[in-house]
């Protein structure tokens, strides 16, 4: 269900390194809440993960900024992105690094 991929990554990391998630759906969809509930059930109530907002206005929405980023990324890297998950994730990560919310490197 929603948030279980993030919960699995957090549990797999077992505190050895930080985990950053980027839900593609708005907070109202319950992804963060479900992930937190799954972690609490596993005994990791304070798992120390971070969430970036990657929803870009809603699930399955493709705004102009995301469309441009995908074209730029694919042109520069040769790696194809889809806009529902990986495109949103990588744009959210880029914006977090550029704003200083996530450290470079």
Automatic annotation (TrEMBL):
Domain of life: Bacteria
Protein name stated in the entry: 1-aminocyclopropane-1-carboxylate deaminase
Organism expressing this protein natively: Pseudomonas aeruginosa
């Amino acid at each position: 269900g929603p948030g279980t991929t993030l919960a699995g990554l957090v549990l797999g990391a077992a505190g050895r390194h930080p985990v950053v998630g980027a839900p593609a759906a708005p907070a109202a969809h319950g992804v963060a809440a479900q992930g937190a509930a799954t972690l609490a059930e596993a005994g990791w109530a304070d798992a120390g993960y971070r969430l970036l907002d990657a929803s870009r206005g809603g699930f399955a929405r493709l705004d102009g900024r995301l469309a441009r980023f995908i074209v730029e990324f694919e042109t520069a890297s040769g790696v194809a992105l889809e806009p529902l998950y990986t495109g949103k994730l990588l744009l959210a990560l880029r914006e977090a690094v550029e704003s200083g919310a996530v450290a470079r490197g």
